[in-house]
Structures are given as C-alpha cells and as structure tokens.
Amino acid sequence: MDSDGHPFFQNANATNLSSEGATFSGISHPLKAGDVIGVQYAEKKVRCKIIWVINSGVERQIEAGIEILAGQKSPWQELTKQEKSEGELSKNKRRWTRHKIWFPLEIGFEDARRTHMQTNATDIGGRGCYVETLLPLPMGTKVKITFWMDDEKIQTSGAVRASDGGVGMGIEFTQLDDHVQERLQKHVEKLDAGLQRAAKSATTADS
Fold first, then answer.
1. How many Cβ atoms from other residues are within 10 Å of residue 167's Cβ?
2. If exposure means fewest CB atoms within 10 Å of the residue's CB, which of 22, 128, 185, 196 is most exposed?
C-alpha cells in the first residue's frame, strides 16, 4: 500500500543492503516515513517500515530507506556477505586525520520538507565525518551540516561519500573554508586529547 492507500506492485533497485534494511530507488508510488510495505526478493518475502523518503518530483525517482520489521529474516542475507565496505576502502584517501570522538551535529536537507536529523559523528576531522546508522543515506546525497565549535555555530554543505548498509555513512564537508577546516581539526584534536587524559586519570584512580 502506498501513502495514498492504494495497493501497488512494482520492481525497484536496491542498494546498501544489510541484514537490517536497504535503500530502494526507482519507485513511482508515493511513500512516507512510517509506512509498512511488503518486499519480495527472489522467492523470499518480508515486511519493512519506511524510515526516510527522498522525492525528486519526477516519476520513478523516489528513493526510500527501509528497515526490516523485528522478528523477520533478511531475504538478501547471502548478498550482504559479499559486499565490501565503502567506508573501509575510503580510509586511505583522507586528507585529515579522523578522531574517534562523540561529536554532536545536525544533518539537514536541501528539501525543507524533510525532517532534520539530530545525531552524533563517531569520528570526525577537518574534511568530514562518519555517522553510525543502520540506514545510511544513499551515496551522493547532498546534505547541510550544522555543528558548534565552542560558542560558534558552523554551517556547511556536505555530500555522502560512503554508504555502508547496517553500519553508517561517511560525509565530506564540501564548502568548509580551509581556515575553518584547520580550526575544526585542532578543535577535535583538543577534545580527543582531553578525553584520553580523562580516561587515563580514571584508570590511575581505579588502580
């Protein structure tokens, strides 16, 4: 059933496959977050919930992130075992060192109708970050990133460069000035160093 209450059946393209969900594209029927749809791959069927939707307004151009309902088995389990992580392949291409810290940020979209995502990067550097999520956005998705450095609010455009189904997504900051990149790099280095000192102090106190 689509969001208008009409039954439909059509073929779609699936990417970012994981045991928890996938990204579908090439859909021509209206969908909205929260809808539950049936999905069939080969002879296997499963029920899924729509998590997010991107509608370009062009027929057969709807993309949607779906999550397999609890208690049901992924119909494409064998395929997910064969996939290589795009995030792992891209690690050697980074210009800035990433730091594994919990860094709050907001992910927005060019389409103002879409709900912004309040989340945390799990590692971040001057050029980009990685956000852990079971249902990452498709590669190439344009986003708006907002975060704080001390008392200063920073906003920049970004693009999803790695999308690992069931794991997360790598986002490149595409319009962050060089001096702001350097400030952000120093900021996260300072935060990381502070966390390591705190962890070391706690370990010493426990012993």
1. 19
2. 196
Q: Give helix then strand counts, H and E, for the chain.
A: 3, 12
What is the Cα 150 distance to its own chain's centre? Answer: 25
Q: For residues 5 and 198, what is the distance between their CA atoms, to the nearest angstrom? A: 55
Encode pLDDT of 12-34 as tens digits.
888 888 888 888 888 888 888 88
Give the tokens for residue 153: 């609010």
Tokens of residue 106, six digits: 């907001």
Torsions phi, psi for 3 (to 5 deg): -70, -15
- At position 76, the amino acid (one-letter code) is W
Tokens found for residue 84? 């290589």
Structure tokens at 203: 């370990």
Look at the chain and count its residues.
207
Strand order in the sheet with 117-121: 117-121, 103-108, 142-149, 152-164, 168-173, 128-132, 123-124
Q: What is the tens place of the pLDDT at every residue in 129-176?
A: 999 988 899 988 999 999 999 899 999 999 999 888 888 999 999 999
* Of 113, 100, 116, 114, residue with least CA distance to 155: 116
Closest to 19 (Cα-Cα) out of 170, 167, 169 = 167
Cβ-contact 29, 151 below 8 angstroms: no
Query: Can you tell me the distance from the alpha carbon of 103 to that of 112, in angstroms, rounded to the nearest whole number?
Result: 24
DSSP 91: G
